[in-house]
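Reviewer comment 2.1 asked that we show a complete input and output for one of the modelled complexes. We chose the flavin-adenine dinucleotide case, as it is the one discussed in the main text.
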Amino acid sequence: RMINKTIEIYEGLEAETGQPVGWHKCGQLRIANSRDRLDEYKSYMSVAEVQGMRAQLLTPDEARKLWPLLDNKEMLGALYHPDDGHIAPADVTHAMAKGARDLGAKVYLNTEVTGFKRTAGGEWLVHTNKGDITCEHVICATGNYARQTGELLGLDIPAIPILHQYWITEAVPEVVERKRAGRPEMPILRDEGFEGYLREEGDGLMFGPYERTEHLKLFAEDGVPAWFGADLLEEDFEAVSWNWEQALRLVPALGRVGIKANVRGPFQMTADELPLMGPAWGLPNVWLAEGVPGGILWGGTIGYYLSERVVEGGNSLDTSDLDPRRFGDYANKEWTRAKVREAWGTHAEQKYPGQDMPAARPQKTAPSYDRLTELGAVWGVLNGWEMPNWFARGGVEAKDQYSWRWTPKGNLVGEEVLAVRNAVGLVEMTPMTKFEVSGPNAARWLDRIIANRLPAVGKVTLAHHLTANGGVQAEYMVARLGEDLFYLI
Ligand SMILES: Cc1cc2nc3c(=O)[nH]c(=O)nc-3n(C[C@H](O)[C@H](O)[C@H](O)COP(=O)(O)OP(=O)(O)OC[C@H]3O[C@@H](n4cnc5c(N)ncnc54)[C@H](O)[C@@H]3O)c2cc1C
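Response of the prediction step:
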């Protein structure tokens, strides 16, 4: 739904600003070669319907009709998004800038921010190489420079750029023929068989393979070097030779033409491949639109929802998954490096609901860790802490079982839940954040911010903490330890 907002904004840009943006609404086709991937797409379809997204599950024959150059005999089905497309990145940037100027914004080109200072009146004084600018709000959207910008503000931004590349081929006769015959542009193709994307570009094809962890290179870990402007870097074929081999096998037309260009450069990456969008921690009125992996994809929607948040004080849809504060102090540079490599390096791998990825673990363990491991704990992660997800017993291996379907661990989890409900159980809550609320007005204050009735002394209740405009801020277990003493988990 968030990406739909980007599409909606980009589609209207040309009419709004008079600037052409090269929007091609060619759709997107994702191929499933395994039962798990097809399960993922089926699960996606149910969500898409609820969220009002147009998507279709296709049979292999239907998919081949949309992408006749694909010779994939392993295909089980495909997911088709008719509303997806591609756009010219530089044009869209210029159109956005023009649209902003037309509405009264000022754009200062070639002006470097060198520092920030909070004024006595609570505003921000932004120092630049061309003088100071006073702001009520500061939004940082500095791409590959995020860590440097963070340093100016005293923030350790959990993002590091990775290096990615794509190739553009010379004219492909089949593409030329399609155009001549007035056939529609083929959708952007993503196939786990070659772990990458493929689409028409002019009369040729564009192929962008996803770099796997072992071949992935990071960029500017210690800050973007002074020589780097908007430069492109040297081709690195070795990093993705496997993807190329598979692509040539599955799309033979790709191998019958020469290469016209290689485009290789850095873009930001975070541990979960999601942007850092929202308030900067500990700095009033400083907002982040940093760590954006896919700034074209995310650009429109981040602009929209971040401004909504700044102006309205909240979002009309839940954007907490993007909140920059979702990572804690544990997300230092070393941790970020390992997680970023894992995130992009497994981008094309099958992922499952509830799956916690293994890199940089264990980061934080509670004193009970060894004892619970002996008891069969299968570990997940919460807030950087290892957290027992469930306990393996009765000969079941202490290893998580990931699937889109029911797995036998569900029976064990069910027994644990019933034991706690009907008898008694111990739950390791170390990873959860806790607050103690106490004092003469504690009950009155809590009653105002949470939606449920407060529990009686000695009881607990589950309650939602609301935002000022009635949205959900957080969910707490509220334990009332005394008339004016509450413990929130
Ligand atoms: C090969 C390749 C393929 C890609 N494919 C896609 C794709 O298919 N889809 C997609 O969505 N994205 C793709 N991307 C990524 C996309 O290009 C980037 O995510 C996007 O350009 C980032 O936009 P941004 O606005 O966050 O950062 P940028 O465009 O880098 O803008 C940040 C700006 O902040 C400025 N800045 C930094 N520090 C300061 C300072 N101190 N003072 C003043 N200004 C400052 C910089 O000069 C720069 O102008 C690709 C990238 C590459 C390299």
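Residues 295-312 form the longest helix (18 residues). We note this here for comparison with the apo prediction described in Section 3.2.
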